Amino acid sequence: MELCFYNSKNGYLEAILRGFRSSFLTTEEYKKLTEADTLEDLKSILEDTDYGSFMMDEPSPIAVTTIAQKCKEKMAHEFNYIRAQAEEPLRTFLDYIAKEKMIDNVISLIQGTLNKKSPEELLSRVDPLGYFPQMKSITSMDVQNSHDDVLKVLLIETPIGSYFDKYLSTNTPNEKNNVSTLLNDMDIEILRNTLKKAWLEDFYNFIRKLGGKTEEVMGHILKSVADFRVLSVTLNTINSSLSLELQKDRNDMFPCFGYLYPEGTDRIRKCWNNETVHAALENYPMYYDLYEECKQFYMKNENMNENKLVDNNIKSLEDLLYVKLVKLCETAFDQHCHFGIFYAWVKLKEQEIRNIVWISDMILMNRKECIASIIPIFEPQTDL
Amino acid sequence: MYNSWLEIIRSISPYNWALYGIAMALFLSIVGAAWGIFIAGTSIVGASVKAPRIISKSLISIIFCEALGIYGVIVAVLLHIKLTGLKQEVQVPLVLTDKTDPLIMNTIWGGWGLFAAGLTAGLSNFASGISVGITGSSCALADAYNSDLFVRMLMIEICASVIALYGLIVAVVSIGDVQLT
Asked: What keywords are assigned to this protein (chain A) (predicted)?
């Protein structure tokens, strides 16, 4: 029955989004990009694709960051076009997608303000998808001198305020919520991960309420994303130089849903090095194999300290997880009449921007042989 | 005085049922056609933003839906022709024997038959409308992505629209059988 009623509210937007989907860079275009010698050539090749003249006004020596920023602006422009016309519940769904970027923006603004960078520089490097007007007041936040309540109001007023609230209430149960010490002392990464966990759980509850095909498709995607978070948080803390006590904090960053929840996360909680994590993942063949593949990266990391890690054959967990995410998002487009395609499009566009930035970096560093490690999107299946 | 619900329903005049048949035929066909048009139309409009070439071909889906409205009108008009005004008030007896007046028999058969014919045509157009709409929307989206797919998807749509024709045929045949003098 969903098929009968979906189109009245969302038919136009879904069709527009599928139009965007057909404008991803193809393998031929990636080949052309790899043959570019300078960034100017790259820019002119991109002009032939759907990107068009998006960088027309940039002055001649373009930097890689400008390319990335302009690509993100184009994506944000298309996303906002869709969001402006969306009706409930699609509107809330798209807001959730934007909130993820808002979290990243707020964290980078806080970091920048603490390091005393200028507001204009910070605001120009903000991700345009997660833009919200109250952002500017964060740059003028004075952490040392302001009263705690002012800081609290500032953070809670943002659209992601409820996640900050949850973080503050769980982290300082005994004393009064002492925001300024929290912002100065604790690791910003822990804050970011906790906010992302709160956002993921919120999003998951929302799609559970929506039900139907959206729940089916997005449920699968979000559960996989939650598992990826668990794996990457675990590996990052184990392989970093954090003390064991801070490592215990990582347990709070595991989302309360996902295919690994609750038995898998329970076993991973008790692990303290790579081998035990490997053993804990025994029951989940996909993650077990994933871990096998990227083990080499981390062992090599321990053995030698030189910068030989851009070796093509050894991928870190992040690279492998990106590949898995791309596959998930591609399959989301195979069904009609659900909201998963909006989320999938945003993720695939991000991956494409990462690919373009990687190619530009490799061109600048004159290491064209590494260009093959970009992740192709919607590659035509030839092995059927 | 009526003794049960059955008596009440039985004694509703057959002309009443016949006129409801006309209303149902037209109403359900129009709802089906409208539903189909909005399902297919929103997708066609959105998909043609990035791929303007699909517009002319996708109008076929809309025309299929429109045809369902026309079938509804045909059936309604045919039904109406059979009804030439009340000749006499008919009392439907509870039990029909072979001694009942043939006029009453004809009227009862006519009334209920026209109702059934109208409902047949109406409901089949309604179902076909939704079906053509959904396949039309998928057809437009597939065509926008890859133009080879259009003709194959059109086969499916043709099948979806032919089922309305079956309803029309059955309705017309049942109407032909009726003699409301």
From this structure: Hydrogen ion transport, Ion transport, Transport
